[in-house]
Structure formats: C-alpha cells, structure tokens
Amino acid sequence: MKKLLLFAVTLLAFACSDKKPVQVDAGPSAQMYVPAVSGDSVTREQMAPYFPLVDELFRKYAQENHFPSVAYAIVRGNEVVYAGSTGQSNLENKTPTSTKALYRIASMSKSFTAMSILKLRDEGKLQLTDPVAKYIPEMNEAGLPTKDSAPITIQNLLTMSAGFPEDNPWGDRQLADTDEELLKLLKGKISFSNVPGVQFEYSNLGFALLGKIITNISGMPYQRYITEQILKPLGMNTSLWEYASADPSVLAKGYRWEEEQWKEEPMLHDGSYGAMGGLICTIEDFSKYVSLHLSAWPPRDDEETGPVRRSSIREMQQPWRFGALSATAKLRTGESCPVTSGYGYGLGWRKDCKGVVRVSHGGGLPGFGSDWRIYPDYNIGIVSFSNRTYGGTGFINSRVMDTLIHLTGMAPRAVAASAILQQRKEEIVKILPGWSEGFNAGIFAENFFDDQSAELRRKACQSLFEKAGKVLSIGEIKPENQLRGSFVIHGEKKDIQVFFTLTPEAGALVQELDTWIND
User: Fold this and answer.
1) Structure confidence by residue, pLDDT tens digits, 162-201
2) Which residues of 360-374 are buried (b: 16+ CB within 10 A; e: fewer)?
3) Segment (H or E) for 284
4) What does the alpha-carbon distance between residue 45 and residue 57 come to, in Å, rounded to a whole number?
5) I need a surface site. Which of 49, 120, 195, 370 has the fewest CB within 10 A?
6) What's the CA gap between 444 and 512, in Å, rounded?
C-alpha cells in the first residue's frame, strides 16, 4: 500500500517535464496481439432450462404467422446447443418437419457466393477491385448511367453498390434462368437506379453476376465450386442446389398463405441466379456454417482449419457499405437504443447503442423464408427456416437470442490487455515514486513532453489529487484495444480516471495521458 500511495502522490508529475525521453530498447513488439477473452462461463447445461421457452416462442410465432413449419438451431462456438422444429414440411403427406428436412434457404445463399469470391481472391485469381468486365466481357455492353461513372467492380457487387435497382421479387423469378439469358440481359443494357459505388441497394442481379464470375474463373459451374470448396469441407453433405435431385421424403414443400388457406407454391429450378438464392439445406448442415463464422473470432495465432481464412470471414462480416441509422430503435425492454447498420459481403451488419454487434442475413423466395444471425462477441448464433412464401424468421430469431442472452446472464468477450500495455503501466508504477529518474525511462514518445508544458501538467495533476484526497487503491487496467487503456485511482474523496495510449512504434511508447475526476 505504501508503494501505491507513493504512486498516487507522484502521478501528478507524470506528464510534467519538458525534457525529451531517452530511447531505449524497443522491448516487446506492438504486434504481440492478445486475443479477447470470454466474458462468461454459461454452459449448455445452464442454458438448457430455457430450451422449452425457445420451443414455445417458435411454435407460437409459426402459428400466429401461418407458417406450415419452422426448423431451428442455436449454435455456441462449434456446438449445436439446441435444435428443434414445429409443424409439417409437407402438408399433403402430413410429414412432421425436423432438423434433417431440406429447405430452400433463399438469399442466405449469398454469403456462400461471397465466401467463394474471397477464396478465389486469397488464391490470387482475382482482386475485389477488378472490373466485373474483366471476367464477364458482356458487362461492357451493359452500359453505365453517366459518362463519368466508374466501372462496376467485384466489390460493388459484393456490397450491393453497383447501382442496380432493388430487384425483389423480380429477381426471385429469375432463379432458373440460364447463363445465356443472364448474358442476354447484360447485352440488352441495364437500367440503373444510381451510379456505381455511391449507394447501397439490394441486388439479386449483382450476386448472379458473382456466380458467373466464379464459373468463369474456376472453369466449373459455381454450384459445383461452392459445393466442393465450401460445403463438402464443412461436412455439409446433404446440401444441394436442384430440388429435383433431393429425396422427396425430406424435402420441405413451400406454401403461400392466401384466402385463409395454404396453397402450394411451385418449386423453382436451379439456374444462373442460384448464386443469389438457390441453395437447399438442412438445419443440421447450416449449423456447421454458423460455427465456421463464429470460429473467426477472436483473431488469434491458431492454425487455419476452415475452407477459407479466418481473416476473410471477418472481412465478410464488416460493414463495407453504410445502410441506415435507426434513431428510434428500442431494446427488448422498450428502452430507446439507436442502431446503425451496414452491408458486408453477402451479410448484413448492425451495432446498437450498447455496442452489441450482430451479423445476419435473411432469405425469402416463393414458398420459403429464413434467417440466420450471429453475435460474434458472445460466440453464439441462431438459424431458422420456414416453408411459407417470404416467411421471414428474423424477428423471432432476434427475440429468442435476446431472451436467451438476458435470462442466462451471458456476457460478451472482453478485450484483453496486451503485454506491452500492461508492461507500460507497470513501468509507470515503478517510475513514479522516484520521478526524477522517470524523464529518462524511455517509455514516453517524443511528442509527450512537447504537447503540454511541464508546469501546466504539474498544476493540473496537483489540483486533481487535492480533490481526490488520500489514495485507497489502484484499479486494474481496462484495455480499449491492444494499445489503449485506462484505470482508476480510488481516492478517499474522489476517484481519478487515468487514460493513456501508446504509439504505433515497435516499442509502443506512451504518447498521451489524460487524468480527470470521476464525479
């Protein structure tokens, strides 16, 4: 405690000299990254008491929204902690649905297409900044809205910013088109709603073109490439593209609720637009894909085990194109909580006022609706399928996740203090009692003593510690990231907040220090 008291008393001088620091050995590299650590220890057994509630929420939602059936699963890390289903996948045969039933997942297919593009990129076979016309020459005939429009790039297609108009539900009905019909569309000129690269607008056409790029580069149909390079390595062995090749006993039929009754929807064959929405999966299969996306977090030094790099999966999940700001959004409790959203590569992204990040995508086609979402910081995700036309399950997925996280007290991963961040704090603690030697300790950046005079820093620190009174304890460092953090000095009268940030140099020196009273 004596050292702590000395530390607190002399901290007031900790930014208080105009002498330049002496450079010393760089020490640990700033590149020594420390992965985030789990913020809770909620197990499957602790979640289990709430699984009947999950079943009830899905059952009630299906009933209220006239879904013939819903199948669903909750995934934590690489484990399916719970899976269930309700209703019938085939009303004519009265077939109870299950997690083994095959559903068309519609636009949830888009992220598989995006992942395949990134795999080709990682292999050096394309660049995201490449013009689409480099791989689909017919794109040169599609035209552009203005003479000063930039060429449409692969990244424009991935992020829904090619300038194409929103094409639901027109795009759904193009699912079975041939490659020739897709190319004929380009040759006949495209109608644009925006110039390329300035606006997010949902486009099925854009992902159909990505499928054609995969085909042209790989030399095989995109369906085969995705199956061989993504699905099979994940063990998604029952997933397929063409419904006619599925086992009828496990294939969910699609229905429309109309005139107070269910009407069967004709199934759509697979074709050139399948890259935007043609994949057919079981819940058991898709859960493996959810695990793959969760496995990308946190960044770490482990060996790669997936069909694509973890960094590429994280890249998919970033908001590359701004979507919207929902200023009136509310939490489950009714509390106001604005939300911002964006679009990544075949995935949607949102972050609420509490800092909770969600990555998701829904799907809808004649006869089907679906949704999956993950909460990367919580290492948890959910997926559900329905067999009603555009029978989206996003709302119920969100409700189930919010309820489960709340009831279990699940906490997000916490940023861990890097070795250099902790080291600098410890060095500061050692320096402060004998501050006369601190100026030459070599832990302060060259700007530090030039940014504010020693006298002004001393006066400011003295004032703070007079208000704080006797020091009672020093809190642990709370990192914001690998090179920035804060801690609290608990005083008898007031608490002093201490914040410092390090430089990008190999030795990561202290470049800034702020102290203030916590009122």
Assistant:
1) 999 999 989 999 999 999 999 999 999 999 999 999 999 9
2) bbbbbbbbbbbbbbb
3) helix 283-294
4) 20
5) 49
6) 9
